[in-house]
């Protein structure tokens, strides 16, 4: 009992520390008249606010840099709280006892994201997808699962980023020079719509599918063409694999070019499922994700612009619902005026996925073979 109380106190103190350990270097949300439009400021992350347009909630960030910093911060804090909870647990603890101790102290791997959303009273894309996924899983049996119908296979696949976006993948940037700019992310290709001059009528039109491109405030930014053939700059591999009895994992392997908003990245993610009392659920289990070579743990090889090669090896193991690893490169390096992005060739780099020390999958990023 004392151990559970101590662990609960440790988690509570860690969550409270979220508001103290994030050094913020961006300007405050007081640009022009935006301060009067912000309904609430975050108590956990400085210079992040909540705004409403026609009854729809969106978060406001002072820059895209701050947006990306917040994603990294939420991921880092989530990992820290996970380690703090697991630190005093026996090494060979069973999953039943692990879940019992987690319930006793109120631990969940998404506690940091939940606290961030609750603090702002924000209905996020993460929360919406989670509810839809629960319903989808309840209707499944032991047949092959259809990736195209899985609500979790949204083009925004990162949980921390989902916590920052509206249910329709929208966000507002309080640009220092222009004021509030509305963004709606459109697809996995890296396209989006911008609305400038805080044209609320145009924003409502975009939200309702009535997009007036003749309006100079409305801009459609389309994705950069990806390269295929023997050298690829875009890959999406999603598949489901059966492990031991009543367990499965989802393999997600992605490679993306840079856009005006994101750097190029290669990513491997594993999501675990367990069948409990006749229903499938996204559940905690011992899972792993890796980026490696043809053999588990070997070095993988990627390239820049299908030219200069560099090695990559990432691995993470945890008792979680999902784990991920990724590698990015900045699109601008030094004074070089050419953008940079990651490319791959066949047999160069693989995504690995494991569960319960039984299931082990290692697939070529290039063709998922």
Multimeric status of the protein:
single chain
Helicity level: 10-25%
SSE series: HHEEEHHHHHEEEHEEEEEEEEEEEEE
Q: What proportion of the residues form beta strands (DSSP E)?
A: 25-35%
**Could you report the average pLDDT, rounded to the nearest whole number?**
88
Counted beta strands: 19
Which segments are poorly predicted (pLDDT under 50) over 5 or more consecutive residues? 5-13, 22-27
C-alpha Rg (nearest Å):
21 Å
Instruction: Give the overall shape.
Output: globular
Count every helix, treating DSSP H or I runs of 4 or more residues as helices: 8
- What is the structural class? alpha+beta
Task: Quote the distance from N terminus to C terminus.
Answer: 49 Å
The main sheet comes to: 7 strands, mixed
Main sheet: strand order: 1-2-3-4-5-6-7
Offer a few descriptive terms.
369 residues
Task: Characterize the structure shown.
The protein has 369 residues and is α+β, with helices and mostly antiparallel strands. The chain is built from eight helices and 19 strands. It has a seven-stranded mixed sheet with strand order 1-2-3-4-5-6-7. Strand 10 and strand 11 form a beta hairpin. Helix 1 packs antiparallel against helix 3. The longest helix is centred in the N-terminal third of the chain and has 23 residues. The radius of gyration is 21 Å and the shape is globular. About 4% of the residues have low confidence.
How do the helices and strands line up, and which of them pair or pack?
Elements: H1 2-16, H2 34-37, E1 40-41, E2 49-53, E3 56-61, H3 64-86, H4 95-105, H5 111-120, H6 125-138, H7 159-162, E4 170-175, E5 179-185, E6 192-195, H8 200-207, E7 218-221, E8 235-242, E9 247-256, E10 264-276, E11 279-282, E12 285-292, E13 300-304, E14 308-312, E15 314-320, E16 322-329, E17 342-343, E18 350-355, E19 359-364
Parallel strand pairs: 3-4
Antiparallel strand pairs: 1-2, 2-3, 4-5, 5-6, 6-7, 8-9, 9-10, 10-11, 10-16, 12-15, 12-18, 13-14, 13-17, 18-19
Helix pairs in contact: 1-3
């Amino acid at each position: 009992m004392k151990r559970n109380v101590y662990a609960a106190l440790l988690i509570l103190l860690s969550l409270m520390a979220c508001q103290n350990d994030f050094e913020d270097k961006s300007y405050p949300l007081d640009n022009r008249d935006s301060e009067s439009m912000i309904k609430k400021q975050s108590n956990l992350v400085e210079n992040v606010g909540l705004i409403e347009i026609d009854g729809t909630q969106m978060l406001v960030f002072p820059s895209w840099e701050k947006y990306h910093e917040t994603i990294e911060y939420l991921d880092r804090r989530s990992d820290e709280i996970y380690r703090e909870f697991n630190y005093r647990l026996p090494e060979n603890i069973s999953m039943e006892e692990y879940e019992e101790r987690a319930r006793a102290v109120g631990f969940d791997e998404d506690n940091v994201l939940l606290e961030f959303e609750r603090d702002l009273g924000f209905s996020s894309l993460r929360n919406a997808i989670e509810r839809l996924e629960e319903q989808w899983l309840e209707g499944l049996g032991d047949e092959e699962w259809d990736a195209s119908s899985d609500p979790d296979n949204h083009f925004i696949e990162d949980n921390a980023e989902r916590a920052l976006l509206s249910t329709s993948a929208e966000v507002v940037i309080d640009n220092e020079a222009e004021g509030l700019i509305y963004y709606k992310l459109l697809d996995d290709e890296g396209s989006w719509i911008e609305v400038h001059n805080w044209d609320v009528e145009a924003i409502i039109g975009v939200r309702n599918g009535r997009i007036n491109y003749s309006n100079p405030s409305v801009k459609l930014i389309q994705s950069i063409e990806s390269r295929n053939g023997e050298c690829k700059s875009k890959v999406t591999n999603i598949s489901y694999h059966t492990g031991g009895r009543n367990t499965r994992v989802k393999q997600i392997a992605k490679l993306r070019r840079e856009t005006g908003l994101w750097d190029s990245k290669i990513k491997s993610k594993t999501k675990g499922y367990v069948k409990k009392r006749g229903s499938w659920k996204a559940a905690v289990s011992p899972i792993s994700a890796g980026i490696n070579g043809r053999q588990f743990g070997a070095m993988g090889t990627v390239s820049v612009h299908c030219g200069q090669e560099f090695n990559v090896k990432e691995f993470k193991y945890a008792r979680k619902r999902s784990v991920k690893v990724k590698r990015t490169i900045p699109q601008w390096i030094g004074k070089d005026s050419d953008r940079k992005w990651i490319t791959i060739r066949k047999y160069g780099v693989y995504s690995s996925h494991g569960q319960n020390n039984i299931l082990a999958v290692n697939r070529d990023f290039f063709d998922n073979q």
